[in-house]
Design brief:
By secondary structure, the chain is of the alpha/beta class. Helix content is 22%, strand content 32%. It has one domain: Rossmann fold (3-Layer(aba) Sandwich), CATH 3.40.50.2020. Bound molecules: inosinic acid and magnesium ion (MG). Magnesium ion (MG) binds next to β5. Inosinic acid (IMP) binds next to β5, α3 and β8.
Length: 176
């Protein structure tokens, strides 16, 4: 870390663990039927995904997608491209889409569009973090781990320029 930047702890590893277990419990309860495909948006949600699915005692398949980056810019729906497409055919399956954070909503809305086009039996979305802010894009995740202020955060999978994903807690990244 550059000495000019600082990390201010926001959500501890213990709090994350408790909340992830609660989410897993609810997800397990809400998806009693089979044919579940969990789709994770790379790379930010991989740590959340790994912890969450290991607490869900359900038969499932796991797939990943990646979305073109936009370097912090607010984007309109359709502007982001889904780069890695699905390995699993989700037609007729129950899909649970996982992402790390809902910011503008551009990422989730792009992936939701791709999934809907394949006509799944159902689609639910789950994000670990949701920023409190006005959004031009209307995306409402079904499950949210924590609501946070509109700040730039890192850790537990979230990065700044590729770094800090391995921090076990979530911190506000301050450029000072
Ligand atoms: P959205 O498309 O604007 O909703 O942004 C979603 C994506 O932007 C997330 O999947 C993250 O990869 C990235 N992102 C948004 N806010 C943050 C942040 O505070 N820290 C790190 N990554 C972020
Ligand atoms: Mg991401």
């Amino acid at each position: 870390m550059s000495p000019r930047n600082s990390l201010e702890p926001l959500i501890s590893a213990e709090k994350i663990e408790v909340r992830v277990a609660e989410l897993a419990h609810r997800l397990e309860h809400d998806h009693p039927g089979g044919d579940l495909v969990v789709v994770s948006v790379l790379s930010g949600s991989v740590i959340f995904l790994a912890d969450l699915v290991r607490k869900m005692n359900l038969p499932m398949r796991i797939d990943t997608v990646s979305v073109s980056s936009y370097a912090g810019r607010a984007v309109a729906p359709g502007e982001l491209k889904v780069l890695k497409t699905f390995s699993e055919d989700v037609h007729g399956k129950h899909v649970l889409l996982i992402d790390d954070i809902l910011d503008t909503g551009g990422t989730l809305s792009a992936v939701i569009g791709e999934i809907q086009a394949m006509e799944p039996a159902s689609l639910k979305t789950c994000v670990l973090l949701r920023k409190k802010k006005e959004r031009n894009i209307d995306v409402k995740p079904d499950y949210v781990g924590f609501e946070i202020e509109d700040l730039f955060v890192v850790g537990y999978g979230l990065d700044c320029d590729g770094m800090y994903r391995n921090l076990p807690y979530i911190a506000v990244f301050n450029l000072t």
